[in-house]
Amino acid sequence: MRAADHKLLSQTGPGTPMGNLLRRYWTAALLSRELPEPDGAPVRVRILGEDLIAFRDSTGKVGLLDEHCCHRGASLYFAENKECGLRCWYHGWKYDTTGACVDQPSEPPGKRFAKEVKIKAYPTIEKSGVVFAYLGPGKPPKLPALEWLTVPDSHTYVSKRIQHCHWQQGMDGDIDGAHLSFLHGKTDALDKAPDLQGSNSVDWLRQDIHPAFLMKKSPARILLGTRRKAGTDEYYYRINQWFMPGYTTIPLPGDGTLAGHSWVPIDDTRSLTFTWSWHPKRPLTEAELEEFKSAKVSVHATLIPGTFLPYYNRANDWAAPAKQPWMRVRNFQAQDMGITESMGPLYDRTREMLGSTDAVIVAVRKRLLDAARKVAKGGTPPGLDPQTYALRPFSALLPRSEKDWVGAVGDAIETRPETFRFSV
Q1: DSSP track, 188-256
Q2: What is the pLDDT of residues 4-56, one digit of tens each?
Q3: Rounded CA gap, 85 and 306, in Å?
Q4: How many Cβ atoms are within 10 Å of 422's Cβ, its own excluded?
Q5: How confident is the model at residue 155 (pLDDT cuts 50, 70, 90)?
Q6: Positive or negative CA dihedral for 105, 106, 112, 117?
Q7: Beta strands in 252-381 (DSSP E)
Q8: pLDDT reading at 365 higher than 90
């Protein structure tokens, strides 16, 4: 990769080309349960290199403001949340969810200028357990029609974790079908995850270490088909999606849940990973919810209690003691987090030597680069139509003679409840 392209992909702060692109979409900012009640404690939020404060006002509406008071810069983390606004602890200036200053009690009567004061504030929407924020200019687009955002709340569960690496390093792992046979297949992580059982998929992942990578591309999404041998006359297809700018999906076997991620920059060396588990047709069971909350499944991470920091992290080598370092890391998500964080906070992509198995990663990077340059020239970013996102992941056995893998799975990947079929 050219150094200029690496720089463009890497920087996400205000005013950068990639940062400007990301700000044209709704961004997952925090979990709704971080703000459990009206007039509760404010919460610090850092996304896209900006320090913000989230709060739920007296009516239940979520506000997202610049962290620092317009007066003298005191942090609104210490503000009083009461009567539909945040009142700065330092001198009492108060702001509502729109950023309007509604009171200046420290200013003498007749000299108050609250109507002239407005702190930076971003629109928010709550959906499927997450507060989304729009950090861009103009009118926000509609939320994407990702299936986990369209099913009833009873059908979905979401978690959040912090990763100490660039957001694309984690996302690259989700669209890299080759690593499953090695990173996860060489330990018993595949065998222990409850959501991966009930099919022969684990065996097929281990046995065929040279899968074929098929793509159906458009400017705002890529449909991925990772094809492995299964028996003598069939192929095992893992079909999932990447959506602009940082959504990925994961097929899981049987009548269990499907999974998806939203990859969000905290800044250029750390990221938030929101993980959704959902079922297209039914509410989640108590047993499923317990597995998600305890992170027994493959897609949710074990956290240090009371934090969003993974229990398995660099300080403990993402692992427990064993003969060699790679043998120690046996938790599924710890394997993904550990290997992407092991690259460093922001790996220099000019040092990579990409192979044929990296075709999907190259395609995604190209779409992000093209979109960032388009927006920089005043163009409209791709993917603002909600229906762009109306595809679900799926895995299937298809005859080796089948050439049209997309047509063969038919409407199983369309996000309508009646089209849901079990993955193999």
Answers
A1: SHHHH-GGG-SSSHHHHHHH-SS-EEEEEEETTEEEEEEEEEETTTEEEEEEEEEETTTEEEE--SBTS
A2: 999 999 999 999 999 999 999 999 999 999 999 999 999 999 999 999 999 99
A3: 26
A4: 14
A5: very high
A6: negative
A7: 258-265, 271-278
A8: yes
Q: Count CB atoms within 10 A of the CB of residue 358.
A: 17
Q: Classify the C-alpha dihedral 110-111-115-121 as positive or negative.
A: negative
Tell me the residue type at 231: G
Four-point Cα dihedral 378, 382, 385, 388, nearest 10: 180
Whether residue 326 is predicted with pLDDT greater than 70 in this model: the reply is no
Instruction: Kindly give the residue spans of alpha helices, DSSP state H, lying in 11-50.
Output: 17-22
Contact (Cβ atoms closer than 8 angstroms) between residue 226 and residue 237: yes
Q: What would the two tokens of residue 138 be? A: 């103009």
Residue type, 385: D
Amino acid 315: pLDDT: 75
Is pLDDT above 70 for 116?
Answer: yes
Q: What spatial distance separates the first Cα and last Cα of the chain, rounded to whole Å?
A: 37
The residues pairing with 212 across neighbouring beta strands, listed in sequence order, are 227
What's the token pair of residue 252? Answer: 């899981």
Query: Whole-number mean pLDDT of the chain?
Result: 91
Which DSSP state fits 368?
H
198 has pLDDT over 70? no
Helix 359-376 to helix 167-174 angle, to the nearest 10 degrees? 130
Q: Which are the contacts of 154, defined by CB distance < 8 A and separation ≥ 6?
A: 283, 284
49 vs 194: CA distance, rounded Å:
37
Side chain identity at 360, as an amino acid letter? Answer: V
Nearest to 68 by CA among 47, 28, 95: 95
Enumerate long-range contacts of 300-308, CB under 8 Å, 24 or more apart.
Answer: 300/159, 300/275, 300/333, 301/159, 301/161, 301/273, 301/275, 301/333, 301/334, 301/337, 302/331, 302/333, 302/334, 303/159, 303/161, 308/160, 308/161, 308/162, 308/272
Distance between CA atoms of residues 56 and 317, nearest Å: 38
Say if CB 408 and CB 239 are below 8 A apart: no
pLDDT tens profile 380-399: 999 999 999 999 999 999 99
CA–CA distances in Å: residue 217 to residues 244, 272, 363: 12, 26, 8
